[in-house]
Amino acid sequence: MSGTLVSSEIAEPYAQALMSLAQQNDLADQFGDTFRALESLFAESEEFRDFIANPVIDPEAKKSVLKRVMGDDANSYLVNFMMLLVDKRRIMFLETIGQQYLELLRKLNQVVLAEVTSAKELEDEQKQRIVEKVKGMTDANDVELKTSIDPSLIGGVIIKVGSKVIDASLRGQLRRISVSLKS
Q1: Alpha-carbon distance 64 to 120, whole Å?
Q2: Contact 58, 67 (CB under 8 A)
Q3: What is the DSSP track for 73-90?
Q4: Do residues 59 and 122 both lie within one domain?
Q5: Which of 107, 139, 166 is the last residue of a domain?
Q6: Torsion of Cα atoms, 29 then 84 then 14 then 104, to 10°
Q7: What is the pTM of this model?
Q8: Which of 32, 92, 122, 152 could lock onto 105 through a cystine, CB 3.0 to 4.6 A?
Q9: What is the phi/psi pair of residue 85, to 5°?
Q10: Based on the domain organization, do 101 and 119 belong to the same domain?
């Protein structure tokens, strides 16, 4: 837990500086798209995450891999930012910096993040109903859904928006019935 706190404290100034640069050059959403893609890459490839976090790997090798991952059409400001992170030995915080940047972008665009856990994959209509429900609860302009699947819920969903948690799962309902029967 304290490691997460330390990485957040290190990542925040970098994310804020990058957001400032992005806003000055009207690139905030473009950088956000890049960080979402990197977030997916970190989630899919433990090997990539370990490579980036490993302090023993040659910085030039990291730069080379990052340039290939970013592609030839990547924004030069963002590529230079990542090269700076490698030079300053802060590249291990790239994932946290990306998360912090996306949080700043959501605040800028008045978008809330709703983490939705369901027993099975949600259909588009169900996702849209959740988005509308969350918009009504939060008065946000838009809602970004982050979905995950947990078959142990049996049915229904758990929606987390900030510190609010709405447990509309069958498992949660059974747990509440069990508690009420015991008392």
Answers
A1: 39
A2: no
A3: TS-HHHHHHHHHHHHTT-
A4: no
A5: 107
A6: 10
A7: 0.82
A8: 32
A9: -60, -40
A10: no
Two tokens, residue 179: 């508690």
Contact by Cβ (8 Å): 52, 64: no
CATH number of the domain residue 93 falls in: 1.10.520.20
Containing domain of residue 63, as a range? 2-107
Q: How far apart are CA 77 and CA 70, in angstroms?
A: 12
Tokens, residue 19 = 């957001």
Same domain, 12 and 30: yes
Instruction: Per-residue pLDDT tens, the chain, 183 aa: give them.
Output: 345 677 788 899 999 999 999 999 999 999 999 999 999 999 999 999 999 999 999 999 999 999 999 998 899 999 999 999 999 999 999 999 999 999 999 999 999 999 999 999 999 999 999 999 999 988 899 999 999 999 998 888 999 998 999 998 888 888 889 888 887
| Three-state SS annotation for 13-65 | HHHHHHHHHHHHCCCHHHHHHHHHHHHHHHHHCHHHHHHHHCCCCCHHHHHHH
Q: Which of 63, 105, 89 is nearest to 10 (CA)?
A: 89
